[in-house]
Amino acid sequence: MGAVTGLAEAKRIVVKVGSALLVGADGANAHWLAAFAADVARLRARGQQVLVVSSGAVALGRRRLKLTRRALTLPEKQAAAAAGQSGLMRAWEEALEPYGISAAQVLLTRDDTEVRRRWLNARATVETLLGLGVVPVVNENDTVVTEEIRYGDNDRLAARVAQMIGADLLVLLSDVDGLYTADPRNDPSAEHLPRVTRLTRQIEAMAGGANASAGVGTGGMTTKLAAARIASAAGCATVITLGSRPSPLQAVEDGERATVIEPSTTPAAAYKAWIAGSLAPAGALVVDDGAAEAVRRGKSLLAAGVRRTEGRFDKGDAVVIRDEAGHEIARGLVRYEADDAEKICGLKSEAIEAALGYTSGPLVHADDLALGAHAPA
Ligand code: GLU
What we know:
Blueprint: H1 2-5, E1 12-17, H2 19-22, E2 23-24, E3 27-28, H3 30-45, E4 49-54, H4 57-64, H5 74-96, E5 103-108, H6 110-114, H7 116-131, E6 135-140, H8 154-164, E7 169-174, E8 179-180, E9 192-193, E10 195-196, H9 201-207, H10 221-233, E11 237-242, H11 248-253, E12 258-261, H12 267-278, E13 283-287, H13 289-296, E14 306-311, E15 318-323, E16 328-333, H14 338-344, H15 349-356, E17 369-371
Parallel strand pairs: 1-4, 1-7, 4-6, 5-6, 7-11, 10-12, 13-15
Antiparallel strand pairs: 2-3, 8-9, 11-12, 13-14, 15-16, 16-17
Helix pairs in contact: 3-5, 4-5, 8-10
The structure holds glutamic acid.
């Protein structure tokens, strides 16, 4: 049954863990965490990369601050998050430590996943952590966000993170074992859906009312499907399953119930479409014939083949790559800001460091290139 969810095959997995799983009456739920850590260790041992999106800061902090009796105001929630986040990280570290796995705290806001430069920085950091074999533990940086700019729920944050790092699987650990045609708790005719190939309006309507918040966390089934929609468009499959079992990932691989929502594209195609279509180019790089040919063959754009730059772009901005006849060849994310890019036009890679005092590699890396001419943004 494991192959059905893709859990055994996925290379990069984002698992969202909600407060209800992590926080019990006496604080962090060490038992559950220990069993979940075994899950993580098993995936890591198979060579899979795992990133956890963990809630629980507010739930832990409000206990610590004795703010348990009533609904919290936003500043109180933020204070609780600040007080609880360190305990949350300690719980993760203690759970992963027996397996020799390090955890790393990554606190993100919506800006970090939407403003391109911050997005690129966050992505680079998370990539580095994953490359080092660390398990990044991501949460929203609740202290600095306002109501308007909050994700508010970690389901969507998890989907954005999955998109950011090109994950191929997003697992949302929930308080139900998947998606049903109606709320299974009060409708005995509700049927479980093992697989959703496309998120239609009809499917989304099924989520209405089902799996309402358990009181500790925030996301219901509606936010889970919103997350699945983001993931699907980013080329990432979503698995919704019951989180409260010990080692819930192992349970799914052993055939326990889950709903899989299929991706509508691949992560690489989604990323290229994002570069090609949704970013307004901030400038252009005019390249010689050799570089144009190399880019067409899927190679990185090196400074040596660039004749001149146009526009005032920043590092990380989208730029158009044009040949000298004015034909657009590709779009890509540039690794140098305009002044520095201009200074290194025509230089061999080895000479960049001497010219600028640093190097960021090719002007545009092959991974950040989308080939072809695109509609002007
Ligand atoms: N960021 C919040 C916390 O750590 C949780 C948000 C959510 O549960 O979706 O407590």
